[in-house]
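User: Here's a chain of 510 residues. Predict its fold as tokens.
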Amino acid sequence: MADTYVGAIDQGTTGTRFMVFDHGGHVVANSYERHEQIYPKPGWVEHDPTEIWENTEQVVTDALDSGGIDASQLEAIGITNQRETTLIWDAESGRPVHNALVWQDRRTTDRVEELEEAGKADAIRAKTGLQPDAYFAATKAEWLLDNAEPLKLAGSRASDLRDRARDGELLVGTVDSWLIYNLTGNHVTDVTNASRTMLYDIHEMAWDDELLEEFDVPEAMLPEVRPSSDEEFYGHTDPDGFLGAEVPVAGALGDQQAALFGQTCFDEGDAKNTYGTGSFYLMNTGEEAVESDHGLLTTVGFQMSGEPVQYALEGSIFVTGAAIEWLEDVDLITNAAQTAELARSVDSTDGVYMVPAFTGLGAPHWDGRARGTIVGMTRGTRKEHIVRATLESIAYQTRDIAEAMEADSGAETTTLRVDGGAVKNDFLCQLQADILQTEIARPEVDETTALGSAYAAGLAVGYWDTIDELRDNWQIDREFDPEMSDAEADRMYGRWDDAVERSLDWATEE
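Assistant: Prediction complete.
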């Protein structure tokens, strides 16, 4: 196996990466390309699907070239993707009918409030495990069918979008489906991505007729739902296409479930938190779909071929790494690495709290109209205090989730496995250990999202035989133990709720 590998396409919110892994789970080739963030109106966020696909072709080609690897040496390709981001495309031409609506997009908040006012939220939550929110795909698909620009569909009229969809001439999907379609020609998604649409019954493991009717999304346009690691494969790449080889596409997971898989959280009670644009804290709950009483989501964790679905509890935090990007945008820092130095330069925030609710608040608050807030400033407040408060906000939001997770599951997390770009920041990792009063374990391979999708694909084709091999690959880079007292952590966390309260229900005019 020394000369064969597994590739992973990691299509994220800000860019697309292709990583090639060897049997030991080590990265042997890597390429990354950013794509444009499109903001047509306040609260609206879009991506160009064509740009995403072109970037995917580019990073796959560049990574293989840089690693001196021929595409024929890839035993399989796995896919992981920004979840909930939704697009519709023409089945014959492959042309998107509109930009993709990104998971952060809030344009359907009014529609979600209609559902809540009509008393439908509990029924939706019971079937899907999801708190109705503009975050998920259902209202995005509905909006696209109502509003997609008809001029992008040659010869069609605005009124016939749903007719064409019912006839299977239009396809809808999350980004994994878009990539699988372009790679293989097949319309497929996996169970984890399906579970994020708000159209899928996670108990029956099927598209739900009542939800499809509620959002008027024809079933004919939906992808086939398959296991996350699929021994029957989703399809093969075209040997006459850009890769020049026929490679099985055999695994897919939404990015947060991929990180759960990559962190080898295969057992009930295992938990991880990924710090990316947002942060997503998942705990494996085994074969039981645990219902949350504390604002968490019940979701599909993963499924391997021929095996039962593994469920998870999830706390979705919409803005963490994006708050660091905001500090750059407003010139408080010049790069993300600078945050640790600035935060260490002051002993505290001097009472400043920052709530980074730029796109509303996710778990456990679920307020789509919350907005970013800084409170507690005085004339003596400096940028160092605001930078430190921003890092602390990441730790506080994570504690919100950890407390809800323990309340719902009845299990206390003794070690939290962390990954994502922000965990390279030792100050943040130590701060997180202190605020949670929990050990933080950072793995050697921190690109666990890509690694998880590679593992799923590799298991499907027999590159790895068992999940025990994957457990053996997982190695700790560093552990962070709490250095702060319980009392001090509680004191700092104590005013966080007050700050959050001031951010709620702000964007009343949107």
